[in-house]
Amino acid sequence: MGVVRRTIVIAVWIIGAIGLSPAVSAQNRDGIDPSAGQGVWIDIAPPLSRELVDDVLAGLDQLSQSTPGDSRRTVVLAFRESASDVQTEFEEALRLARRINSPDYRRLRIVAFVDGRITRHTVLPLAAVERLMLSNNAVLVGFDSKQESIDETVQAAYQAIAKRRGLFPESLVSALVDPDAELVRLTTSDGGRPLVTADELQSMRQSGDVIEEDIWKASGEALSVSAVQLRDLRVATDVIATGRRDDETTAQKIRESLAARLDLSQLRPLATDVGTSDRRGVLLEMIGSVTTAKSQRWQSNLNATLSGDVNTWLVSVDSDGGSFGESMGLAGWFASPTPPLQRVVGFVPGRAIGDASIIATACKPLYLSPDAKLGGPGADSIQPEQVVDQRELIELIARRTNRSAGLLMGLLDRQRQVFRYTNKSTGRVRYATPQQLVEDADDPDLERDRWRQGEAIDLSAGLTAEQAVQLGLADGIASSLDQVAAQAGLPAVPAPAADRGIVRAVESIGRRQGLAFLALMIGFMMLSTEMSAPGLGIPGFVSMICFGFFFWVQYLNGTAEWLELLALVLGLVCIAIEFFVVPGLGIFGIGGLLLTMLAVVLMSQTFVVPRNVYQVEVLTRSVWMALGGLASTMAGFALIRYFMPHLPVLNTLVMEQPDAQLIDQQERLAHFEDLLGQTGTTMTPLRPSGKARIGERVVAVVSDGQAVERGATVRVIKVLGNRIVVEEAT
């Protein structure tokens, strides 16, 4: 009986276990890290600066800490060719390589992907990764004897990093870092294909096993090893055919291909995976012309954020420049963020032309919208000597942002002719003028012989987003601020920097030239209405509001100052004098009209005399705006005269035109011939018509063309029916 009971208990337990196993499995599935099967992509644009290495290590730290202890997350470090003239410092490359190899990242599977030419010390971190994947155009380039000498300590550090991972053969590392080393790929009698140095080659030759020798590197030359060669050596596991990585679509295809080869469901950029809680940002929209007042306001608003927990500035630049000095100051500030600020992220939704281009390129990273324009003529005419005077600051910005100083100077100086130069031995690319290429060399002729001159880079008309990314002046293409914020590691587009909302609203309205022009036209039309029916007040008040709004919009856009406002006010005062004080002379009317048009033109631009194509276009647009205001004045007079008297409600604002025929019939009943030669006193000012007391009668009179004040003595000089013409008696 006891045996039967034990058998039943065991059977029930087995059935229960079988029944519960799906639930347990489901529970385990629910507890799996949601990021399992997903890799992380970190884009790296050499050279490896301190700021860049700090960002990469911060991202790896965040990934390591957020990865469960019983799993590993795949991280792809995507190295791409740089257009910068600046080279990676050994200390920064070694710092990154050591951390990649450290136990701190045991939860991470770090893979490197190389697209393009990677040179000198930037190669070192590649020897520290677990797996190397290459694009079909990837090339690793070492040092040659013409570059700085590599001491034994540096060579030993390279070998130590490579041995710890075992990915790069010792002979390959020696040839990359030692300019005097020789490297040969052998084919032996047993079918082997070893890669040996010169010392190893001698012993192999003596053994008689060498069938073929393929020289990869001679002494004094830089080793240049291609993707195919690295795959044949089994240093790289995969070679992926890629197109240009100058747009988000192509980059996404590369990530999908890598994810498939790494057995991942997808690869996502670091910013969309982790770290969003540590990124606290603020948004600054730099819209319109760059002026001293606006620059001070921008700086004040941003400085106020440094006292809090903000560590990222998101700067949207949509400007035509306007002040080279102010733009250089802002660019130097953005390129060297000070703690607690970690980085300044830039975005160009429309255009950053003229001196505004240096503000945009000082942001790192910088994203452009697909239709954006970078560089080209702007609101300030930048002279070549101004760019030369700012050379040190431009080179500092280039080092901080890993961009080409030659290209930055070419963006600002449209007369500068920049060429693409390629080092004949290393393949290194540099952008410079022929003079800039050799100006720091001890032997200019020898330095010139080291470089092969390529095509000229035309920067005079500016660059498209695609061209800017190709040249390394931008870091990517994004369609919106939301996408830029995600790439920057921000959970959403941050709130704008402290500023009055009404200022931002007016600046937003000011970007729509049509609204400003409409306000100007309404202002002139209402002014003409007030002139046609003086004393009504309402049209004059509306006109004042429109003119004030037009000035405020242009002031916030940086194109209007108090001098332009003074010209506008004086012009309107002169027009009022012509209509209400001394009519008929024309001097005040013509002068006031010219002053008003001049004010409108100057309020629409930051310059007086155009000096480039862009300024000519702006001047043309400003003149048309002023002419539009004049046309609206004429239209206002026509509206008052012909239409408004017949419109409901509006007809109360206009005095009806008198019936001339009725007045003539009434006045024909009176005879004034007896007044000829008599004198009298004016009862009203004669402008030129009015009333005067002649004898015992008050009659309507007309002056002989001169304005006559009230109370003046006048003499009747002509009587034509009911028309009495007088002159002021002396």
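Second entry:
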Amino acid sequence: MASLYNTKFYHRDLSWLRFNHRVLQEAADVRNPLYERIKFLAIFSSNLDEFFRVRVSDIRQIKTIEKPLRKKLITKPNKVLKEIKKQVDIQQNEFGKIFNEEIIPQLASEGIHLIRHENFSEEQREIATKYYEESLKQITEISCNPCTEQHSVFVKNERLYLAAQTADDEFLMVEIPETEPRFFVFPSADDKTFHITFIDDILKYNLQKEFSEKRDTAFHSLKISRDAELYIEDEFSGNLMEKIKAALPNRDTGQATRVLIDPEMPEDFREILKKALDVTHTDVVLGGRYHNFKDFMQFPNPTQIKLSNEKLPPLPHPVLENCNSIFEAIDKKGQLLHYPYQSFKPVIRLMQEAANDPQVKTIKITIYRAADESDLNDAIALAAKNGKDVSVFIEVKARFDEQNNLKWGAIFRKNGARVIYSYPDIKVHSKILYIEREVEEKIKRYAYIATGNFNENTATLYTDFGLMTAHKKITKDLKKVFMVLERDMIVPKTKQLLVSPFTTRERFTALVEREIALANEGKKGLIILKMNSLQDEGMIKELYKASNAGVEVRLLIRGMCSLVPGIEGQSENISITSIVDRFLEHGRIYIFGNDGDEQLFIGSADWMTRNLTHRIEVVTPILDEDHKKTIRDIINIELNDNVKARIIDAEQKNEYVKNSAKKVQSQLAIYEYFKNLTE
């Protein structure tokens, strides 16, 4: 595996699997409440589904490209796929042990018994029969298929099926209804002992009875993940938005990238199904008796026992919560917000205030992933309806959110907003809002620049920063970014903001080089970066160069990390930790020592090639000293986490940080930090 685990760059997809292993570690962590551990199993499963639909499908497409070009894109795709399958098998086995040997017994100790249909009591069989006859039978689709070489079967993407061989020459395919809850709670006799079963088992019990005359029929679970790429042939001609809209149904019929099959399925029947589904041995993963573990996010707790974390409700912002006007507050001083520790409501209130303020003339915003139901988006629509000049850039190529983004685009346009959709060959990933108000016959500009989406749902789950400011140079720069989006300008010549794909790489490279120069002068060089992902080889080489010059490099990387730390002569001055806890670490922070006068930035760009070269991203400097202190305090807390932080070493073993210092669980400590600000 030398080519995949070389000393320069760790393979991005294998590194992503190591991230998902950190999620699995949370499921195994007995310090977490039982239902939190179950939730992490669900997240692990959901992550893996998307990985096969996106990354594995990409690698398979690369296999079809001619070798010279393929070498530029990826090294030996077959070898990569083989190693991916090996690592996934190891993690799936670990997943099964955690679930069967730890979660199931612990549920039982709390009086919650997750039972199979083989263990139904006589009374439970009667209840299961009644539920099937009254609720399931009429909505359950069953097809009978001949076992012939010519016969093919189509299985819907990410849907759950049961398959059974009923005779030598036919088999059944049963689609499990999505409209019913995945889990069924049997009535309890004493309110102390509860029995829960999968809807799968309700179906298995009844279907085996129904088809028993065709022999002792055993039903086995089956699920297919399909390629999620839309494959727009030519983004530069015609209406790109309409092409994306037309291509969305193809996602349900794309090439199979993973076929999950119950390992108890007989091998001869497995071969019959592979031919009928037109898949190969490479596609098949033996994935357990049950699939779609993401449904465990809604696993019922019928007891009165608290089995989850105590909630950490978003805290009120000390300035914006009770101010008379968000605009007046920003006029006095820029405001920094940090979700989900602080409430997202001030952002919604800013838009609502803008929609109703007669002095507001212009509103411009980018939407990447919108909430399905959104007070923020309702306020944008209201602003347009109220006659404001509203421009909304909607990224329709935000994978898996295309349909929802199109829906909101139609609503905005109906209310009078100018809606601009995706550009060919580039994504708009920035999280920016620009507002103009007419004050005393002069135009006053306001900006909101964030690390996370304009989405009130994810703002309760993802850790992100947002900056509200009326700083003249920043707002002037942001106006230029929107001029680019509206095609009134080709290149934004910004003085404060870093904007991909124009200046971000160049500016970050210069900042790293300055730290190298300081170190070469015998001064302290310092770089602290917090990101979701680090993959771009050019920027990684810059960090290696900084390490070799003696610059101290501290990295907080939540997800994939292609940089290999701790290698003599390459990266011995680089240390990396990754925090996985109750909230998803999502904010991007960039800190450069600057000989004691630190420069801080926040923005939407990871150091991935796509963020630096193929997306429009916006990164803003933090100029206010109070905001600098807040961000630095938070980063210090995270760098000292020794409860939920893992060490990213050269092999990405994911060992927990262990030291003799006082225990610091950074997310709880940060919540207390902001709580103290409000008291």
